[in-house]
Write a structure and sequence with these properties.
The chain has 127 residues and is mostly beta strands. Helices cover 4% and strands 49% of the residues. The chain contains 1 helix and 11 strands; from the N terminus they run βββββββββαββ. The strands form 2 sheets. Strands 2, 4, 5, 6, 9, 10 and 11 form a 7-stranded mixed beta sheet that branches. It starts with a strand and ends with a strand.
């Protein structure tokens, strides 16, 4: 059974930094796309970053230049490094995995993949 277990997040003032991490358990990744979505109160879930098994990445314009998605040294982990956080970044962040591995990362960010999901992690940025 595929499980995505998230960690990290928290609360920071505007301009601060946070990381969120996700470990894929119960499945050995080969060809894949992993990514991050977020959902703010009263808003729809939006894709913000993704990385595929070839190392290709894609970012939503809202986070480009501030957030970085990287694969971890530990097997089957992915991290989202968030710099210069803004109050608008406040949301529940979800890890996503498309284990079929046939779609490019921009497809995941645009919501065109079928994903396994993490449990969600709160990120709060105060002004």
């Amino acid at each position: 059974q595929v499980m995505l277990v998230q960690s990290g997040g928290g609360s920071v003032p505007a301009g601060g930094s946070l990381n969120v991490s996700c470990a894929v358990q119960g499945y050995t990744l080969s060809h894949y796309c992993l990514g991050w979505f977020r959902q703010a109160p009263g808003k729809e879930r939006e894709g913000i970053a993704a990385i595929d098994s070839d190392g290709q990445t894609y970012y939503a314009d809202s986070v480009k230049g501030r957030f970085t998605i990287v694969m971890g040294h530990a097997e089957s982990t992915v991290h989202l490094l968030m710099l210069n956080l803004k109050p608008d970044d406040t949301a529940v962040y979800y890890c996503a995995a498309d284990i079929r591995g046939t779609a490019p990362p921009d497809w995941m960010v645009r919501g065109r993949t079928t994903n396994y999901w993490g449990q969600g992690t709160q990120v709060a940025v105060s002004s």
